[in-house]
Amino acid sequence: MTNAPRTLYQKIWDAHVVDRRDDGTCLIYIDRHIVHEVTSPQAFESLRAAGRPVRRPDLTLAVPDHNLPTTARRDANGNRVPIADPQSAQQLEMLEKNAPAFGIRYIGDADPEQGIVHVVGPEQGFSLPGATIVCGDSHTACNGGLGALAFGIGTSEVEHVLATQTLLLKQSKTFEIRVEGKLGAGVTPKDVILHVIGVIGTAGGTGYVIEYTGNVFREMSVEGRLTVSNMSIEGGARAGLVAPDEITFDYVKGRPYAPKGADWDKAVAWWKSLATDEGATYDKSVFIRAEDIQPTVTWGTSPEDTSGIGGVVPAPEDFADASKRDAVKHSLDYMGLTPGTKLTDVEVQNVFIGSCTNSRIEDIRAAAEVLKGRHKADNVKWAIVVPGSGLVKAQAEAEGLDKIIIDAGLEWREPGCSACLAMNPDKVPAGERCASTSNRNFTGRQGPGARTHLMSPAMAAAAAVTGKLTDVRDLAPAS
Amino acid sequence: MEAINHVAGKAIPFGRKNVDTDVIIPAHWLKTITREGLGKGAFEAVKLEEGNVFTDERWAGAPILIAGDNFGCGSSREHAAWALLDMGVTCVIAPSFSDIFSGNAFKNGILTVALPQEAIDRLMEVAQDETIDVDLDTQSVTTPFQDRFTFEIDPFRKHCLLNGLDEVGLTMAQGDTISGYEGKARETLPFLASPVLAA
């Protein structure tokens, strides 16, 4: 290895190369593998058929999240409440059986640690800086907020990792997204990443791993960094990274699976060495002024369809690219929006606060701060707050946030992926709008015909209060 | 994985840009525990659009799909690849693909061919009435009108596709190399490589 300056990505990559082929493909060691119920049944089945064991069950964690209802999972007698959808029930049952059959630690549906995989990993200290982390789920990129090289994989790759604890990969290019300056009031990490995707487009990061640099990320909490890195995939990048620093170490220290004693000191020393070297170069860079970022929402069916909340619905003709014009036409038709409409005039009937992007304690606090002393508007028929894990739920309840949320007329639910992708019973009805803190506004994502507007927890809470997309900064003082 | 070399036949002229995995196969289809039967759910919402190419008899059972930029963006669901296979598609031609989708396609023996937008425009035109021919060995796409477009493909992927190789089996054969790495990592990065969990 030469002493040439290296990026954070390059350092993590180099530390995990098991074997390098002539064509540059590398066999990369995987430090942590999280398995959920949706993308694993076929992988376990293939292992079983081939008589192959899991190579490192001790580095593998199984957690159900996608199919679980967010209503009570145990009745008053402590018995399991049956899951109505037989297919969801079957998928959950497969994971519950496959995990112990292959020697894998399983966190069950009613365990206090259960939650969305990308919330559980960091929370348990299972996800660590500098580690390679995979899961059959594209939002694994979330863990990059810790400075881990974390990315989503398909089911064939899940099988490959289970069997070999490695993946065959080609090195990605590097993409620096630098945000510097001072974020305005009401501008949160979610607004930062939505703005970034609006700038780079959903294919802007294809083939790249993003490193988020600049004072805005340096000053951001780990939870904020997780929100940002989570949506790297919406910018086309398989992974995002924020260099680990003291804020990261403080966050990781003392968590159940975090290193302890001499291992901890050794870990911190190594983590400190991972930051991108002076003089290292990225394959491309984008610079964004923090002052240019407004509280941001999406108006279309692609996460790149963003606008500051003060904007209007654009017209197809506003776009230079012919296929984008066509896509915008489809989008506006699906969304039921007319060009020129002020975004703050768009009414919503549903509010979803949750998902791996925004369901950690700081998100719940931000929503509760807006909801405190206020009540949801009458035209908002369905509004749920879904904490990212049982531990987030318990923390929120200890702080009395559940009461604020319930008093405001919103529902306080059990943890899971919920209405982010509507695999469980939480769906947005066809033709209705949802102010959502999730990550994808794709056609049909929150239910067939559902119309999604992505935004921050504070903005979603503000929308719940007024019944319209709302600039949280303009809310009248609570009565 | 089935070996694949040559794909020839009708090509569905979809052409849309940023086709995400929720469009290819909506989430409610992901509750399956097998790889089969997902063709029915493929492009479910698009099939409801008037004049769509997926319910048009002219392209029923076509082995090739033509799409716009950034095909397969979004989730990591391999169900997107399984759904295409189940509807009989073994080759997708587009200007670009999402990283995860192209990996998933490859692992299921689906050939992803990246061509410039001008070539896509031409193929969209040809596909209205004629067949298209994709040859992996020569890395070329041809039409009955003497059009010929060549494409790039990773040599390792090409080798695996041509020979239908099982990647898991190939890597397992390197078990000693992996053990060597693990032994070293337990010394240098014990906080990552040491056992963490018990079942």
Automatic annotation (TrEMBL), chain A:
<dbReference type="GO" id="GO:0009098">
    <property type="term" value="P:L-leucine biosynthetic process"/>
</dbReference>
<keyword id="KW-0479">Metal-binding</keyword>
<dbReference type="InterPro" id="IPR015931">
    <property type="entry name" value="Acnase/IPM_dHydase_lsu_aba_1/3"/>
</dbReference>
<feature type="domain" description="Aconitase/3-isopropylmalate dehydratase large subunit alpha/beta/alpha">
    <location>
        <begin position="10"/>
        <end position="467"/>
    </location>
</feature>
<keyword id="KW-0004">4Fe-4S</keyword>
<keyword id="KW-0432">Leucine biosynthesis</keyword>
<dbReference type="InterPro" id="IPR033941">
    <property type="entry name" value="IPMI_cat"/>
</dbReference>
<dbReference type="GO" id="GO:0046872">
    <property type="term" value="F:metal ion binding"/>
</dbReference>
<feature type="binding site">
    <location>
        <position position="417"/>
    </location>
    <ligand>
        <name>[4Fe-4S] cluster</name>
    </ligand>
</feature>
<comment type="pathway">
    <text>Amino-acid biosynthesis; L-leucine biosynthesis; L-leucine from 3-methyl-2-oxobutanoate: step 2/4.</text>
</comment>
<dbReference type="InterPro" id="IPR036008">
    <property type="entry name" value="Aconitase_4Fe-4S_dom"/>
</dbReference>
<feature type="binding site">
    <location>
        <position position="356"/>
    </location>
    <ligand>
        <name>[4Fe-4S] cluster</name>
    </ligand>
</feature>
<comment type="similarity">
    <text>Belongs to the aconitase/IPM isomerase family. LeuC type 1 subfamily.</text>
</comment>
<keyword id="KW-0408">Iron</keyword>
<dbReference type="GO" id="GO:0003861">
    <property type="term" value="F:3-isopropylmalate dehydratase activity"/>
</dbReference>
<dbReference type="InterPro" id="IPR050067">
    <property type="entry name" value="IPM_dehydratase_rel_enz"/>
</dbReference>
<dbReference type="InterPro" id="IPR001030">
    <property type="entry name" value="Acoase/IPM_deHydtase_lsu_aba"/>
</dbReference>
<keyword id="KW-0411">Iron-sulfur</keyword>
<feature type="region of interest" description="Disordered">
    <location>
        <begin position="62"/>
        <end position="81"/>
    </location>
</feature>
<comment type="subunit">
    <text>Heterodimer of LeuC and LeuD.</text>
</comment>
<dbReference type="GO" id="GO:0051539">
    <property type="term" value="F:4 iron, 4 sulfur cluster binding"/>
</dbReference>
<keyword id="KW-0100">Branched-chain amino acid biosynthesis</keyword>
Automatic annotation (TrEMBL), chain B:
<dbReference type="GO" id="GO:0009098">
    <property type="term" value="P:L-leucine biosynthetic process"/>
</dbReference>
<comment type="function">
    <text>Catalyzes the isomerization between 2-isopropylmalate and 3-isopropylmalate, via the formation of 2-isopropylmaleate.</text>
</comment>
<comment type="similarity">
    <text>Belongs to the LeuD family. LeuD type 1 subfamily.</text>
</comment>
<keyword id="KW-0028">Amino-acid biosynthesis</keyword>
<comment type="subunit">
    <text>Heterodimer of LeuC and LeuD.</text>
</comment>
<dbReference type="InterPro" id="IPR000573">
    <property type="entry name" value="AconitaseA/IPMdHydase_ssu_swvl"/>
</dbReference>
<keyword id="KW-0456">Lyase</keyword>
<dbReference type="Pfam" id="PF00694">
    <property type="entry name" value="Aconitase_C"/>
</dbReference>
<dbReference type="InterPro" id="IPR015928">
    <property type="entry name" value="Aconitase/3IPM_dehydase_swvl"/>
</dbReference>
<dbReference type="InterPro" id="IPR033940">
    <property type="entry name" value="IPMI_Swivel"/>
</dbReference>
<keyword id="KW-0432">Leucine biosynthesis</keyword>
<dbReference type="InterPro" id="IPR050075">
    <property type="entry name" value="LeuD"/>
</dbReference>
<comment type="pathway">
    <text>Amino-acid biosynthesis; L-leucine biosynthesis; L-leucine from 3-methyl-2-oxobutanoate: step 2/4.</text>
</comment>
<dbReference type="GO" id="GO:0003861">
    <property type="term" value="F:3-isopropylmalate dehydratase activity"/>
</dbReference>
<feature type="domain" description="Aconitase A/isopropylmalate dehydratase small subunit swivel">
    <location>
        <begin position="2"/>
        <end position="118"/>
    </location>
</feature>
<dbReference type="InterPro" id="IPR004431">
    <property type="entry name" value="3-IsopropMal_deHydase_ssu"/>
</dbReference>
<dbReference type="GO" id="GO:0009316">
    <property type="term" value="C:3-isopropylmalate dehydratase complex"/>
</dbReference>
<keyword id="KW-0100">Branched-chain amino acid biosynthesis</keyword>
<protein>
    <recommendedName>
        <fullName>3-isopropylmalate dehydratase small subunit</fullName>
        <ecNumber>4.2.1.33</ecNumber>
    </recommendedName>
</protein>
